[in-house]
Specification:
Elements lengths: L5 E6 L8 H10 L3 E6 L9 H8 L3 E2 L11 H8 L2 E7 L1 H8 L6 H8 L3 E6 L3 H5 L1 H12 L3 E2 L3 E4 L5 E5 L3 H14 L7 E6 L4 E2 L5 E2 L6 H12 L3 E6 L8 E4 L3 H12 L4 E4 L6 E3 L19 E3 L3 H8 L4 E8 L3 H12 L3 E6 L11 E8 L4 E8 H13 L1
Parallel strand pairs: 1-2, 1-4, 2-3, 4-5, 5-6, 9-12, 9-14, 12-13, 14-17, 17-18
Antiparallel strand pairs: 7-8, 10-11, 15-16, 18-19, 19-20
Helix pairs in contact: 1-2, 1-8, 3-5, 4-7, 9-13
Length: 391
């Protein structure tokens, strides 16, 4: 099942470190090459000799213990197909989230560009700490999968959420991701995200509430499936794939035209403004004594419809945000635009859609089919959208 795969495991200084011995055994039994990095504190809970015997490889601890010309934090990152950090302490999570590289494990994490899974384990109060949750959000936004801890009796005597999740769950997640990473290999996926900005004058503009989170989640999911990813966005993101920063609808259209001919899948998750100001003011518009101000608006290009008209072998996926009659409006739009799939969002609800972490959508296809994806994190929804398109 895991033949030919190299799994890099990072172990940090927590009592649950001993559980990783069983995980290594399972990986080896199913044909994987396993390499282990320990933080110095991890060796207070599990011995280096035990890990070496189970992995049948050197266990790496010190950052500059270089035996060959190539630095270990680079060679280990290059050789592995996937990286797992378990158990991950609050300290290591915070370091990786903020780009610290002060030991071998965090240095490798900074250099790692493929799929990474982190399985935290800590005291329940530490888990609920706002700073830790913010750092976990940072990691999730970069496409790192977090296997949340379980509730139960903790080694410190507390009862709460903080136990390392079951090793079988970790094993299944690694196996699934190794298989998942091949699905879009050799495919170029172009994704748009965020709300476009249409200037009124040097100070003011017209835009919308789109956060760009759904588009980012789609880009991260496509990357983890092995695709070449281009994210065209109005937001400031950092990611291990090409990002093109744009502002207006025309900027987005130009960027898409640059990438479209060489793309295989185009996903229009951005909220493109339907209108722009007809007469942009080069100087700041001054407030007058008039009670009303009239702005004349003109239509922006219909980027989705234009792409659908000129597509050859590309699969084009549109998004629509509706506040009422979701399915009826989406059914009309997919026909009018001519796209292969249309993902419909209900923005009337406060718990999904704009600016929040969850979503719930319906995917329509050009043949009249419809697939509802129940409420889940945008990362999960993104993954299911791509799997549906792929299948």
């Amino acid at each position: 099942m895991l033949n030919g795969k190299t799994i890099l495991i990072g172990i940090t200084g927590g009592i649950a470190a001993y559980k990783i011995c069983e995980l290594i055994r399972k990986f080896k039994k199913n044909g994987a090459e396993v390499k282990v990095i320990c933080t110095p504190n991890a060796l207070n809970f599990v011995t280096k000799l035990t890990l070496q015997n189970l992995s049948q490889n050197e266990v790496y601890v010190q950052e500059f213990d270089v035996k060959e010309w190539k630095p270990e934090h680079i060679s280990l990152a290059d050789e592995a197909d996937i990286m797992l950090i378990a158990p991950a302490t609050a300290n290591t999570i915070s370091k990786i989230a903020n780009g610290y590289a002060d030991n071998l494990l965090t240095s490798v994490a900074c250099a790692f560009t493929k799929k990474m899974i982190i399985a935290p384990a800590m005291n329940c109060n530490m888990w609920n700490n706002r700073a830790i949750q913010e750092n976990l959000f940072k990691l999730k936004s970069r496409g790192i999968e977090i296997l949340e801890p379980e509730k139960g009796f903790l080694a410190c005597g507390y009862v709460g959420k903080g136990r390392l999740c079951d090793v079988n769950k970790i094993y299944d997640a690694v196996c699934e991701d190794l298989n998942y990473s091949q699905k879009l290999q050799g495919t170029k996926v172009v994704i748009t995200s965020g709300g476009t900005i249409e200037d009124i004058d040097p100070v003011r503009y017209i835009s919308n509430y789109s956060s760009g989170k759904m588009g980012l989640a789609l880009a991260n999911a496509a990357k983890s499936m092995g695709a070449e990813v281009v994210l065209i966005t109005t937001k400031d993101f950092e990611a291990p794939y090409k990002i093109v920063k744009v502002k207006s609808a025309f900027d987005m259209q130009n960027a898409l035209n640059e990438e479209f001919d060489t793309s295989d899948i185009v996903i229009m998750a951005a909220a493109v403004a339907d209108y722009r100001v007809k007469n942009y003011s080069e100087q700041k518009m001054k407030k007058t004594d008039d009670e009303n101000l009239t702005l004349e608006l003109v239509k922006n290009p219909d980027i989705l419809q234009d792409l659908c008209k000129k597509k050859t072998n590309q699969v084009v996926v549109g998004f629509c945000a509706e506040s009422e009659n979701l399915l009826e409006n989406a059914a009309v739009k997919i026909v009018k635009k001519g796209c292969d799939f249309l993902v419909a969002n209900d923005i009337s609800r406060k718990d999904i859609g704009f600016g929040v972490e969850d979503n719930e959508v319906v995917i329509l296809d050009k043949n009249g089919g419809a697939q509802r994806l129940e409420k889940a994190s945008k990362a999960v929804i993104a993954r299911k959208i791509l799997e549906y398109i792929h299948e």
